[in-house]
Amino acid sequence: MATAGPPGPGATHLATKVELTISCENLMDMDVFSKSDPLCAVYINSSGSHWYEFGRTEMILNCLNPKFAKKFVIDYYFEMVQKLKFCVYDIDNNTYDLSDDDFLGELECTLGQIVSNRQMTRPLLLRNKRPAGRGTITISAEEITDNRVANMEVSSRKLDKKYLWWSDPFLEFFKLTETGWQLAHRTEVVYNNLNPTWRPFRVSLRSLCGGDVEKPIKVDCYDHRVNGSHAHIGTFKASLAEMQVGTHICPAEFECISPKKLKKANYKNSGVICIKQCQVLKEFTFLDYIMGGCQINFTIGIDFTGSNGDPNTPQSLHHISPEGYNEYLSAIWAVGSIIQDYDSNKMFPVFGFGAQIPPSYQVSHQFPINFNPSNPFCAGIEGVVHAYQKCLPQLKFWGPTNFSPIINHVACFARQALYQRVASQYFVLLIITDGVITDMDQTRAAIVEASRLPMSIIIVGVGGADFSAMEFLDSDDKLLQSPFGDVAARDIVQFVPFRDFQGSSVALAQSVLAELPDQLALFFNSHNLKPPLMPSAPELPQCLPSVMDLSCRRQNYKVKHHY
Fold first, then answer.
1. CATH 2.60.40.150 fits 148-282, yes or no
2. Comparing C-alpha atoms, which of 183, 184, 171 is closest to residue 254?
């Protein structure tokens, strides 16, 4: 089984391993007295221009419909465009060089396209891009991982007092490894309580016990100290299987033992830890949802405020260079080229804000850049670029810079999707802007509300402005709060300044998309929403249809929104 590692030093370390299986049908018969003897060679393009061979299947004698046994395992990075090429040859000799073997056709695609379809069948093409007879190639993708998690509810009673008449207890769970105990999970601190109940938590079985429910887990109980010198209350060891017997009515109970007190004659324990629930479930991953039919709906918001400058002058951030680029277009290409693999229609609504628009030239903070309110969709990233270039001369850049209208607009559709109680749609809003937000309070409130919906927000800051407000919205350290005190359910905003990635669209895409897979999976798992088409289903279509087709989208825009 062939495996591929990280594509380069700039790639994220958070990769998912995907196993590819290859088969073909109706290959051309190149032999006179027998059938073709096919082999498939897999190539990877990680540099933009150079293809290198990753591996080969076995050769199958006399077969026009081969099902190759050899698997290919590739590290899958959502935030990267990973180009693959599958070349099929009729092997005529025993040499390693394939150039003297008959070429039966090839398929060039991205790994994202494969995993989004789960099983993809495409025609084989000759090098002149003509069909290779009736030959087709089918590539199936399967994620390799243990996706089980333990949902746990834990309490304790009669813990030892460590300070006067109280303790501030917390727990630490450890996995046994070859090198010793490894921390798997730490609970929050419950202050001034000898009979605490900790918040329910979820931890992967890989982290907790390496997937082995009979393997011992160590649980330490501490009294929290601000200076970090936490006082050890006690410890116990038990397997996950032993913890699973507990219920809310009859918890699994374990004595919390302090080694220092074992010598005392009347010592029994330092309290009792109660496992009220330890439920092992499968936690679905990003790939589970994508392969199971979840569609990513991609919306783009573009800042046309006056601070960008006159697009007719080279100093403007909207000025298109002779090569056809500016920072706005570069951001659209970098992010959109990856996202479009996960939307079968590849029809993207694109809105502008902060400009006076024809024919009345009233200021608008949410207008389709194709000026068609009933159908704001652009066909693919190329369509987005074309609509952007066409609308520029018709706008009068104005202001202010308001984010909340477009966030609330996308949130409306995300809310409708959530009502269906199926993990069929997730919404991603890309906002490209140059300036300081002028409706910060409304934007904070909109983001907090959107955090409870199947939605993520990507903000790319262009130019040299002060983006401290954007970094505040990207609340990695703590959850964002609205002006009214409401706390976000999760972190859904990712902000990056374009100036940090000049000349590297790949690095930009990696940075802005790195958090999206976890955001999607966390949302659907927390709402107990399974993929619409389970991977274990006996039969799945080779190309999963979009859950919301274009006509439905258009109708929703007509009914729900008035421009």
1. yes
2. 171
H-type helices in 71-128, by residue range? 111-117
Q: Is 239 helix (H, G, I), strand (E, B) or coil?
A: strand
- Domain spans in the chain, listed from the N-terminal domain onward: 2-143, 148-282, 286-560
Q: How far apart are CA 307 and CA 215, in angstroms?
A: 61
Q: How many CB atoms lie within 10 A of CB 276?
A: 18
**CB 518, CB 526: distance < 8 Å:** no
* pLDDT at 84 exceeding the cut of 90: yes
Domains 2-143 and 286-560 alike in fold: no
| Superfamily classification of domain 2-143 | C2 domain (2.60.40.150)
Q: What are phi and psi of 213, to 5 degrees?
A: -70, -15
- 11 pLDDT higher than 80: no
pLDDT tens-digit readout, 198-257: 988 888 887 899 889 999 999 999 999 887 788 999 999 999 999 999 888 899 999 999
Provide the CA 386 distance to its chain's centre, in angstroms: 28
Using DSSP, state whether 20 is helix, strand or coil: strand
Which CATH number applies to 286-560: 3.40.50.300, 3.50.50.60, 3.40.50.410, 3.40.50.10490? 3.40.50.410
Q: 88-99: string of b/e by CB count within 10 Å (b at 16+)?
A: bbbbeeeeeeee
| Per-residue model confidence as pLDDT tens digits over 477-512 | 578 889 998 989 888 998 888 887 766 777 788 778
Whole-number CA gyration radius for the chain: 28
H/E run at residue 169 = strand 169-177
- pTM over 0.85? The answer is no
